Amino acid sequence: ATIGSIMLLDERKEYLTIEAAIGLDDKIVKNTHLPIGASIAGYVAKTGEALVVKDVENDERFKRINKERYGPASLLCAPLKIKNNVLGVINMAHKEGGVVFTEDDLRLLTTFASQAAVAVDDAYQFEKSRRRLTEFEILHEIQGELHSISSLTSFRQILVEKLRRVFSIDYAIWFTVDRKETTVVPDGAVGKTDIPLTESGKIDLSRIDRGAISLRDINLDMFDIEDITKLSLFFSEKLRENEHYPSPKNAFMAVPIVRSGELAHVFCIGANTDQAYNDDDISLAELVISQAAVLFEKERAVLNATRLMTMGNMISEISHDLRKPLTSIKGGLQILRERWPELAEESEFFTSVDEEIHRMNLLVRELVDFSNPNRYETTTFDLRQIILRASDLIGPDLRKRGIVFKPSFSEAPWEIMANRNQVFEVFLNLFMNAVEAMSEGGVLRVKGMIEKPEHKKQEYLAIKVTDTGVGIKKENLSRIFERYYTTKETGTGLGLAVVERIISAHNGTLAVKSVEGEGTTFIVYFPFER
Q1: Contact status, residue 502 vs residue 378, Cβ threshold 8 Å
Q2: Closest Cα partner for 195 from 176, 178, 208, 179?
Q3: Would you list the DSSP string of 149-218?
Q4: Which among 239, 330, 419, 459 is most buried, taking Cβ atoms within 10 Å?
Q5: d(CA 30, CA 21)
Q6: Which tens digit of pLDDT belongs to each residue from 14-65?
Q7: 442-451 and 403-409 strand pairing
Q8: pTM value?
């Protein structure tokens, strides 16, 4: 025959592509994506039965489809089949001498096809084993190199270099999810693109920094963030809409990195080719990126813990040394007050220095607490008992101001593992703030329940502390957790900052709602296990 080709099915068995050919134009070989069931080859792939066509042009089933490719000629097509699994087909056309293919020719081709199917299947199995081995090699190499990786940028570059050993990658862009703003923000990029973003053709991160992608078009709680196909389609459309990004071709994937059930990062990979990534490429990228990210975070956590221990020892020594000069300054200031009382009363200098000494003492105390490992010891206790204990401590203030305390707790696993003293400090701070906000009396409600915080996918133990006080001005609401920010004349601005830090240290979260003149609600969320 003067024309021959081997066509193989894609992994999803949806279409055939020409993998080897003789006598066909290169454009036909490159551009053929034949749906299963269509044309002669698609028909044979679908039925699994070999076929001889005496004259393609006059065959009612196939002539309109195949005229342009084969012309008026006889044709053979046999399936590449192993254990009733069709891998593809082998085609032969234009028999030498212009004669028609016979049934004997078909039987001979079917025999060849059977042997070829075994070879193709062996090659598939070998490739799968080789790729699996490569996966383990890459993960082993990454784990061995983690201790020497100094930054997140280096880690990402290493990931791209490793994956390039398996499939083509021309560029990669990393996004971090900002759930508060409902966007994904680019925070790293490597590689080149066919659309030059710089004179050298490299991706210019300073330009794509301006290209945050909005997630408001999708409901993150409903969107299947682990579905790479959907995520890739969404990101490829968004990148095409934005001139700051390379325009993705068929070879593109968006790999999600999920933390605690939430989308934390998206790793976009692309190549300047029309040959799409196959399922093995995508599954390999997903495995390597997700596992490597976990390993990297664990390595960083161990390193940070070591650094914190060293820093804690150093801070403890510095804090101890700071206390002596502060005590001396405070004593010296007192002597000056006694020696020149009139000057001390008239000058704001003494008051200002007093306040700064007090603030520095608070800072030193914070440093000492931070460096004290016992401060972070955790035990298992009933959260309700700690809340009621804190309310007992402010009982005299509640009675003095005519404030009614109303606690209520829904049925829930209230036993949590945390630092008892720190949790006590959280609610004591919140209760004291509520008391100060209700100088004319009111109601302090504490409601415990299981609830899912906004922007979270999992449920938490929720404690709502609600007062009927003066509320917080809208312009101040966003700053109340800032250190040293206060609207009180005698406040230090540390109370809510400490609350926020403690909750974060326990992997919890904090929310606040307030209406000026009506009251404020603080919601404290603790993770729990059922």
Answers
A1: no
A2: 208
A3: --SHHHHHHHHHHHHTTTS--SEEEEEEEETTTTEEEEEEEEEB-SS-SSTTSB--HHHHTT--EE-TTS
A4: 239
A5: 11
A6: 889 999 999 988 888 888 888 888 888 888 999 999 999 887 667 766 655 5
A7: parallel
A8: 0.47
